[in-house]
Design goal:
The chain has 163 residues and is α+β, with helices and mostly antiparallel strands. It is built from 4 helices and 9 strands. Strand 2 and strand 3 form a beta hairpin.
């Protein structure tokens, strides 16, 4: 074998190794936070039993793989309103090709200017708000991609769809 043939053979082997390594790694596609926020915004305001949630703002927490959702709440009787914050884990629903809210945890509920709520009001809000949001689809992955999606990962500025 000549030197050129040996170099060409080594190059082919190296390229095949690189190709097989690349194929063994998972492919991921980022969905920007702006797109997720726009899809989530379309789900609001949400209302149930006289409690209305609106003005959603999100923050992606990559370190704990959660999304923080904050906004404003209103209740009709007694007439009160304030701020809320909760966090949740996005859950992949393969049947519907949706990313849904799951494992909701209330971080904050205030009335007016960071005023603590009475225990009874907070108890009512907890009982009504979590079921109102649990399972809410926050993004629909196009069917062509959704059928092949294995997992999702939260980055600070996107959801990474892992195939």
């Amino acid at each position: 074998m000549t030197l050129r043939w040996k170099q060409a053979l080594c190059l082919c082997i190296a390229l095949l190794g690189l190709l097989s390594y690349s194929l063994s790694m998972a492919l991921s596609l980022p969905v920007p936070k702006v797109v997720i926020d726009k899809a989530l915004e379309a789900k609001f305001p949400k209302e149930r039993y006289g409690i209305k949630l609106e003005s959603p703002v999100t923050r992606f927490k990559a370190d704990v793989q959660k999304v923080e959702l904050c906004g404003v709440w209103h209740i009709k009787l007694p007439a009160k309103s304030g701020d809320f914050c909760l966090d949740f884990r996005p859950l992949w629903n393969k049947e519907k090709a949706d990313i849904e809210m799951s494992g909701l945890n209330i971080l904050k509920f205030t009335a007016g200017s960071d005023q603590e709520l009475p225990a009874q009001t907070l108890q009512i809000l907890n009982a009504m708000v979590l079921p109102l949001l649990d399972g809410t689809a926050i993004y629909h992955v196009p069917d062509m991609l959704g059928k092949h999606l294995e997992n999702l990962k939260i980055d600070t500025n996107s959801f990474d769809l892992v195939f």
